[in-house]
Amino acid sequence: MIVLIPIVALLVWSAGQAAYTKILISKVRSDLVLAQQKFNDVQESKSLALKAWSESAYLRNVLQRHGGNLGNAELAVQAEKMGFAYLRLINPGGMVLSSFPARLPYMLEPEAQRSVELRESGSYTVLLSNAELSDISPALATRAVQAIVPTSNASPSSKITEDRALVVQVLQPLFHEGALLGYLEGGLLLNGNLGLVDEINNLIYSPNTLLEGSIGTTTVFLEDVRVATTVRREGELRALGTRVSDVVRQSVLGRGEVWLERAFVVNDWYVAAYAPLLSPDGDRIGMFYVGFLEAPYASIKTRLLVLFLLAVAAAIVLGAFMVVRLTSGIFYPLRRMNYIMSLQEQGNTCARVGDLRRADEFADLASHFDALLAQLDARRAELVGLNEALDVRVRERTADLQAANQQLHQAVAQLLASEKLAALGQLTAGIAHEFNNPLAIMMGHLDLLRMTLLDPESAKTLRLLDEQVHRMRNIVQKLLQFCRPDEYASYTEAVNVNEVIQDSILFVRSEIEMARARLKLDFNATETVQISRTELQQVMVNLLINAAHALEGPFDGEDKSPDEPATIFIETFNATSEDGHAEVRIRVQNNGEPIPAERLQLIFKMFYTSKQAGRGTGLGLPVSRMLVQRYGGDLIAQSPVVPVSKPQWGACFEIVLRCKAKPSADILKETGQQILLIEKQLSQGN
User: Which of 396, 535, 663, 686 is spaced 20 to 30 A from 402 at the CA atom?
Assistant: First the structure.
């Protein structure tokens, strides 16, 4: 309820403000209507006065005496009586016969003559150029010139003076003896006509019509320049030559609207009304303005606002006091129960509301709340006991399921490995048999051709054919060795890896010399390993040949420094595996071109090679890894490796050998798993 008080007060104040503003706008609208009516009355009175004189017997006698001529002196007398700035007689041919101020007869400009002929008798507000005013009277043209005063909020303009004039023209035909003698044209100059605006202002804003301190003002604008005004600037000086604000100019002169709201006038805010002044052709040539100073009314609104806010504040304070008194007895039980709930959330299950020492609905609610908490505590204790028993049973069942699942997976893996290995061995044996038969025939015929063809060129060709046939037999042999490791597994013996490396170097000496590489040996291994000596030698030969090939040809990476020639570094050392078994490791490292990361992932896949056609089969590294893994070891590749700082190059192959080989059953199981992996790769097109 207290929150609603400011909202209602704001709505009431907004409605009051809107109503107050509407009253001020309504007043200034009525002031504008009254001022326009007064301005129209002035025009009408001038028109009636000129018509009465043109039809008077006095004028007929004057024309009769002078033979239809009207002198300048007569016009001067009547112009002064009727308050015209000028008065002239224009004949139907456009000749000004007589005038006040007095001038010799002269001819009107064609445009001015056409304007006179098209108009009917009556009064009009027109905009005359300085040249047109000079034709009437040079003194009048000088009097109309008004200096433009720079005004804040006005639209930008380069004009410094306004020499045009707003004129109320009264036109009346003059007849003599039934014939049209011409037209009487009288003009009331609005530029600098302070008497006219003072008269209108005094009529509208007579004493006691405005609040004390407010000032009523009236202005006639030539376009956006004040040419007659009661607005003051700098004390008692009239604000002639100042300009209207740009926003008012666009609304009234630009769009032809009537402005009815507050506006900035010269140096202060006024409640203002602006209406366009229209020429006989409907052009907007100026504005008519009335308004009164806003400050006293704004001061009243401020005082009312202060009083209103004080009243609202008093209502809020009084309402708050009453609400606190009324609700203090209601909120205490609720706060107590909320506090007990927070204690329950923090783990204090013994917290209770207790006796509130009152006999009402809240006391009953607190009693029921305590009873519910007691029941909840009992249910919680029961659920905790059941949950603990359930957790024990779940853990027992989970352990049983995990053990059974592991045994099942092991059995399935062993069965699949055995079946796959047997099937792949049969398939490979068949392929080997089919390959070996034609290869044997080809070798026999090559021997016959060798005995028949004795010239050097034929011998060279036959030697090339021999090499390719032997290469095909080696591929078949390696496939059989890979797919049926149990038939090709050699007997194991205690092998000194340093001696095997020395023997292997003898087989690849020519390859190393062709690569112009040097060997760098660092033998630190003292333990022996259980492995087939020939198979370990086969692995070392494969790695040394690959290292020599990596050092041949141009090096596309970063240039090695001059003190780092092509080098094959072989290192052996003792190690211990993660499961605590003794190991011997062999590192074969080169400083040739590094193996790209995308190729490093593929080098142990069957038939993958990056060497030129005829130099590699893609079986060396996969077979080498299989040979090592068959005895429980592994073959690991890393590239780049040297130097420690960037950029790096080279590659390192590390052979991990167990000092005590794994049992043959484990070896065959892992080999079967390797076969499954290779079959998956082949099925994926790798």
Answer: 663
Which pLDDT value is given to residue 368? 80
Helix (H) or strand (E) holding 96: strand 95-100
Q: Both tokens of residue 22?
A: 């509407």
**Secondary structure class of 359 (helix, strand, coil):** coil
Residue 186 parent element (H or E): strand 179-189
Q: Is the dihedral of CA 328, 334, 338, 341 positive or negative?
A: positive
Give me 382's structure tokens. 């029961």
pLDDT in the model for residue 471 = 66
Q: What is the 3-state secondary structure (H, E, C) of 146-184?
A: EECCCCCCCCCCCCCEECCEEEEEEEEEEEECCEEEEEE
Residues 653 and 544: their CA atoms lie apart, in Å, by 10
d(CA 33, CA 109): 37
Nearest to 631 by CA among 534, 530, 558, 555: 530
Q: Are strands 122-128 and 567-576 parallel, antiparallel or unpaired?
A: unpaired
CB-based contacts of 296, cutoff 8 Å, min separation 6: 210, 211, 212, 213, 214
- Return the pLDDT at 220: 96
Question: How far apart are the C-alpha atoms of 8 and 48, rounded to whole Å?
Answer: 59
* Alpha carbon distance 272, 129 (integer Å): 29
Helix 361-452 vs helix 295-345: angle between axes, to the nearest 10 degrees? Answer: 80
Can you give 578-634 as a three-state secondary structure string?
Answer: CCCCEEEEEEEEECCCCCCHHHHCCCCCCCCCCCCCCCCCCCHHHHHHHHHHCCCCE
DSSP three-state, residue 640: coil
Q: Give the pair of three-digit tokens for residue 230.
A: 């009661």
What type of residue is 450? R
Residue type at 245? S
pLDDT at residue 213, rounded to an integer: 80
| Cα–Cα distance, 664 to 479 (Å, whole number) | 20
| pLDDT score recorded for residue 252 | 94
- The Cα–Cα gap between 417 and 669 comes to 7
- Per-residue model confidence (pLDDT) at position 624: 85
Rounded to whole angstroms, what are the CA distances from 547 to 395, 542, 596, 597, 610?
Answer: 55, 9, 15, 17, 13
Rounded Cα distance between 378 and 386, Å, is 13
Strand order in the sheet with 634-638: 518-523, 567-576, 582-590, 651-658, 634-638
Q: For residue 463, what pLDDT is reported?
A: 79
Given the structure tokens 């000129």, which residue do they identify?
Answer: 50
Q: What is the 3-state secondary structure (H, E, C) of 457-524?
A: HHHHHHHHHHHHHHHHHHHHHHHHHHHCHHHHCCCCEEECHHHHHHHHHHHCHHHHHHCCCEEEEEEC
Give the closest residue to 472 by CA, choosing from 446, 510, 449, 440.
Answer: 440
d(CA 172, CA 124): 12
CA distance 616 to 610: 8
